[in-house]
Specification:
Structural class: alpha+beta
Number of strands: 7
Number of domains: 1
Order of helices and strands: EHEEEHEHEE
CATH topology: Aminopeptidase
Strand content: 25-35%
Distance between the termini: 65 Å
Protein name: Acetyltransferase (GNAT) domain-containing protein
GO molecular function: acyltransferase activity, transferring groups other than amino-acyl groups
Bound molecules: coenzyme A
CATH architecture: 3-Layer(aba) Sandwich
Shape: globular
Keywords: Transferase
């Protein structure tokens, strides 16, 4: 009896390669807004998980200070998206861990993200916390977001006045 084994691999990719899944999963298929500030910075990391030859999960982390901060040790996690049929298998956790490893390697002390309500628990399980009330964005009416922080080893909370 032959068995088909699915092979997953993860690697860093150019920004353009994460856009299709980012658009499909996070932006309801819109491609006009799939480029984020920081995507093209040299320090930014874009990760893709491949199932055989196909990208099935993506994540990005870029250096970006929190609002009101001028710290260069704060990094933003963005565009974490796992194809629907492959959720719950640890791909999201793996991508966040690899992004945090990158932040640490680059001397970052705090990672943050804007988590939609439906993903809040996922981030909490990965030791992200939110201190402020939820907010909405003009571009995403009806969706509640939370700013969530993860302090890296040796780091501390936000450098906000
Ligand atoms: C949120 C998302 C990235 C999680 O990826 P995933 O590969 O399914 O997550 P994992 O399998 O690594 O899950 C890690 C843990 O979080 C839990 N979890 C994952 N998604 C969750 C969710 N939406 N709500 C509650 N818990 C969740 C898992 O059960 C698992 O818990 P366990 O370790 O106790 O078993 C994925 O569901 C997704 O792409 N969702 C749509 C896009 C999105 O919301 N992205 C985040 C933007 S803010």
């Amino acid at each position: 009896m032959s068995q088909h084994r699915t092979l997953f691999s993860v690697c860093s990719v150019p920004a353009e390669w994460v856009y299709p899944l980012r658009s499909a999963v996070l932006l309801e298929g819109r491609s006009d807004s799939c480029r984020f500030r920081g995507d093209d910075e040299a320090s930014t990391l874009h990760l893709a998980v491949y199932q055989d030859e196909r990208i099935v999960a993506v994540a990005t982390v870029c250096r970006e200070a929190l609002s009101g901060s001028v710290s260069d040790a704060e990094w933003r996690l963005r565009g974490i998206a796992v194809e629907e049929g492959l959720r719950g298998y640890g791909l999201g956790r793996l991508l966040v861990k690899l992004c945090l490893d990158h932040v640490q390697k680059e001397g970052g002390r705090l990672a943050w993200c804007t988590a939609r309500e439906t993903a809040r628990k996922f981030y909490e399980l990965l030791d992200f916390v939110s201190f402020t009330p939820p907010f909405t964005l003009p571009s995403r009416a009806g969706v509640r977001f939370y700013e969530m922080h993860h302090v890296l080893p040796g780091g501390h909370g936000p450098d906000v006045d």
